[in-house]
UniProtKB/TrEMBL annotation:
Biased composition (Polar residues): 730-750
UniProt-annotated stretches for the region Disordered: 678-800
Pfam families found in the cross-reference section: EVH1_PP4R3 (PF22972), PP4R3 (PF04802)
GO cellular component: nucleus
Organism: Umbra pygmaea (Eastern mudminnow)
Lineage summary: Eukaryota, Metazoa, Chordata, Craniata, Vertebrata
Listed InterPro entries: ARM-like (IPR011989), ARM-type_fold (IPR016024), EVH1_PP4R3 (IPR055236), P4R3-like_central_dom (IPR006887), PH-like_dom_sf (IPR011993), PP4R3-like (IPR051137), WH1/EVH1_dom (IPR000697)
Basic and acidic residues: bias regions: 713-728
Low complexity: bias regions: 757-768
Record-given protein name: Serine/threonine-protein phosphatase 4 regulatory subunit 3
Family in the record: Belongs to the SMEK family.
Known role: Regulatory subunit of serine/threonine-protein phosphatase 4.
Domain WH1 as annotated: residue spans: 1-107
């Protein structure tokens, strides 16, 4: 393998016809045994001599390689996989190009090594006899013939290639532009229309060598002139050249000493203008025929950004003048706009290049400069600075967070960068608060824990959130606190309400994503009570924002928050807003009902008790939804369980199947339950809790299905114990049945008809300490919880062994 190595960037063309940067490395050529041929190898420069391979591509003798702009080599590995090597030095590009041409047996002076052949065998055979395409003389009288020749060649890739070579080799473009000037002088409309079609066709040839001629300083304006005379517009041409020469002005806010850089900027602007404004919108079939034009612009932009980054004097002068108090307002406005355009320009770069770009700006002091600019009175300058700040936050929020945490050690809270952003959001004069919305989005990005870094030595989340709540949160919440000192908002105009809605949106985000920081702030500053004042706003969107804030807090099911809400009676403004809304079926009505419904469904016990005990009288008449009656039922069930805690504990364990007993053993309580005498129930009456009577009726039919397998299981267990057999015989003689049937159901199972008649089956009683009639029960008049006696058997709870569960 050769020892020559050249620094290159590797690019691939994605589905959107944009070039993706695959990395920077050093290219070499040599024989690769695995590929059985000479190959191009690019190893990542960061990994040294044994670096990872960025590219390993065999130089195929039949692949068409193109050399563009002296430092680019482009080729296709497959039908939809294009590759490019961008060389740092022309010498390196030339050396690799010679290796490629050597393998393919081509002269290194050519810019493309193969003819692009996509045609059928018949077409290729027809064209084999003509080695080249002969162009008519470049004369006014032959323009129509030339236009027809160009149009007929475009559908065929082979003819396009031959036409390209002919135009390039004969210097035809400069001759055509000379004819254009003659036609303009003679006002020859037909000739100008033919030239429009010819030049447009040359663009569709998609050849870099032709673009380099057309976009040169001496030719580009005439090329634009040819494209002004679209036959579809008739005799009225467009005035693109007038715009470029008279209206569009290049402002050199900082002198650019490099003439090559200045020329590249001019060229890129004009070519971009041709692509966006001059050329007609390409059809579906023509779109891929302009891929080289896209590539030309892309690589120009990459080169411009790189050259500006490398010019330390330029960037130093830029930031020095930006922060200099002696700089006049007009000059500073131009400087900020240039920096904004520069940052916008960088968005076309790949992530690796953007990272280097913003790192360079950070090292030059862009954040301190923005802090100075944002403190100025000029609205336009501040707006441009905000746009620059947004580029920085969106790309690298950690860099911004690190800066603001460092500056808080030196500056007062009032002049911190993040507080300046909050103040601009609060003081936005736009009636629609467009700027405030943008700034709120940036603040949200900065306080989002999802994009914060965590390392072994420090946690960015902890450090930054501690800083934010100590130095910045009071600035953010100031308008909210100032407007909620009474029972209703002191200012309720539309713009103020919009601002408060934005602040509430950010606070709601903090409740969802921050932990103890926002909790401490809300409880210590009594923020929720202040927020709920906004439910009295005449603007429904603001009242709903306040409800959403409380709903997020309740949704956390945090008892610290719940105790805070109960202690301060913070459901009162919600209930008041609900009652004031009346019978209107709107979003306010639905949002409040959903909040209470959440408390009911999630069984938030503390809040359920608080709501019923304090607001039931106001809500008991609401019957178009069952939410409030359901809350009352929850409350009564809680109260019942509090009065009978042991029974509730057993009931909870059994219902949730938190344990399984071994199939071979029964504990003492279960023995007492199954062996209890029928006469322990008074007169055989079924005992069903009143609140569960409706549920019992619906469950009775379901429990019938369990009778047979459960009875068999219980009989088998009874037969294992001689004592149980005696009890079983006694029970059978009392009931007159030979084979007792045990039915097990929930304690709320409904009794069958004929409960007053003598029972025909064995009656069992749980005998738990909290049930009526059981030994040691000290609660009188409490809701009965014993199992229901039916004509077919027993109702009660049981936890079945695994063996039985598998059989059923």
């Amino acid at each position: 393998m050769t020892d020559t190595r050249r620094r290159v960037k590797v690019y691939t063309l994605n589905e959107d016809r944009q070039w993706d940067d695959r990395g920077t490395g050093h290219v070499s050529s040599g024989y690769v045994e695995r590929l059985k041929g000479m190959s191009l190898l690019v190893r990542a420069e960061s990994d040294g001599e044994s670096g990872s391979l960025l590219l390993e591509s065999k130089i195929n003798p039949n692949t068409a390689y193109q050399k563009q702009q002296d430092t680019l080599i482009v080729w296709s590995e497959a039908e939809n996989y294009d590759l490019a090597l961008s060389f740092q030095e022309k010498a390196g590009c030339d050396e690799i190009w010679e290796k490629i041409c050597q393998v393919q047996g081509k002269d290194p002076s050519v810019d493309i090594t193969q003819d692009l052949v996509d045609e059928s065998e018949e077409e290729r055979f027809d064209d084999m006899s003509s080695p080249g395409l002969e162009l008519p003389p470049c004369e006014l009288g032959r323009l129509e013939e030339l236009a027809e020749l160009v149009a007929s060649s475009l559908p065929s890739p082979l003819r396009r290639e031959k036409l390209s070579l002919a135009v390039e080799n004969e210097g035809y473009i400069r001759k055509l532009l000379e004819l254009f000037r003659q036609c303009e002088d003679l006002e020859n409309a037909d000739g100008l229309h033919h030239l429009y079609e010819i030049v447009k066709g040359i663009f569709l040839l998609n050849r870099t060598a032709l673009f380099e001629v057309m976009f040169s300083e001496e030719c580009i304006m005439d090329v634009i002139g040819c494209l002004e005379h679209d036959p579809a517009l008739g005799a009225t041409p467009r005035r693109h050249r007038d715009f470029l020469t008279k209206t569009a002005r290049f402002k050199e806010v900082i002198p650019i000493g490099d003439p090559e850089l200045r020329a590249k900027i001019h060229q890129t602007y004009r070519v971009q203008y041709i692509q966006d404004m001059v050329l007609p919108t390409p059809s579906v079939f023509e779109e891929n025929m302009l891929s080289t034009l896209h590539s030309f612009i892309f690589f120009n932009k990459v080169e411009i950004v790189g050259m500006l980054q490398d010019d330390e004097k330029f960037l130093t002068d830029l930031f020095a003048q930006l922060t200099d108090e002696a700089t006049d307002d007009d000059k500073r406005h131009e400087l900020v706009n240039f920096l904004k355009e520069f940052c916008s320009f960088s968005q076309t770069l790949q992530p690796q290049n953007r990272d280097a770009f913003f790192k360079t700006l950070s090292n030059m002091g862009i954040l301190p400069a923005l802090e100075v600019i944002l403190g100025m009175d000029d609205v336009q300058v501040r707006s441009a600075a905000t746009d620059i700040f947004s580029y920085l936050v969106e790309y690298n929020p950690s860099m911004v967070r690190e800066f603001v945490m460092q500056e808080c050690q030196q500056n007062d809270d009032d002049i911190l960068l993040i507080n300046l952003i909050i103040e601009h959001m609060i003081c936005d004069t736009d009636p629609e608060l467009g700027g405030a919305v943008q700034l709120m989005g940036l603040l949200r990005t900065l306080v989002d824990p999802e994009n914060m870094l965590a390392t072994a030595n420090k946690t960015e989340k902890t450090e930054f959130l501690s800083f934010f709540y100590k130095h910045c949160m009071h600035v953010l919440s100031a308008p909210l606190l100032a407007n909620t000192t009474e029972d209703k908002p002191s200012k309720d105009d539309f713009q103020t309400s919009q601002l408060l809605a934005l602040i509430l949106e950010l606070l709601t985000f903090c409740v969802e994503h921050h932990t103890y920081h926002i909790k401490n702030y809300i409880i210590n500053k009594d923020i929720l009570r202040r927020v709920l004042v906004l439910t009295a706003s005449k603007h429904a969107f603001l009242a709903l924002c306040a409800l959403r804030f409380m709903r997020r807090i309740i949704g956390l099911k945090d008892e610290f928050y719940n105790r805070y809400i109960m202690r301060n009676l913070l459901f009162e403004p919600v209930v008041k807003a609900f009652l004031n809304n009346g019978s209107r079926y709107n979003l306010m009505n639905s949002a409040i009902i959903e909040m209470f419904e959440y408390v009911r469904v999630e069984d938030v016990k503390s809040l359920t008790a608080h709501i019923v005990e304090n607001y039931w009288k106001s809500l008991e008449d609401v019957d178009y939804v069952q939410t409030f009656k359901g809350l009352k039922l929850r409350y009564e069930q809680q109260k019942e369980r509090q009065e009978n805690p042991k029974l509730d504990s057993m009931r909870s364990i059994l219902r949730n199947h938190r344990f399984r007993r071994d199939a071979r053993t029964l504990d003492d309580d279960e023995e007492m339950w199954f062996n209890a005498e029928e006469d322990e129930l008074e007169d055989g009456e079924a005992v069903v809790p009143p609140s569960d009577s409706k549920v019992a009726k619906t469950n009775a039919s379901e429990n019938e299905d369990l009778m047979d397998p459960i009875s068999k299981f219980m009989e088998r267990k009874k037969l294992k114990d001689s004592e149980e057999k005696e009890i079983l015989g006694k029970s059978s003689s009392l009931s007159g049945r030979q084979s007792p049937s045990f039915k097990l159901s929930f304690s709320g199972s409904a009794p069958k008809t004929g409960l007053a008649s003598p029972p025909s089956s064995t009656s069992l009683h749980p005998g738990s300490p909290g049930s009526p009639g059981s030994p040691g029960s000290g609660v009188k008049g409490s809701p009965p919880t014993a199992a229901a006696v039916t004509t077919k058997g027993l109702g009660g709870f049981v936890d079945y062994p695994d063996e039985f569960m598998m059989k059923t």
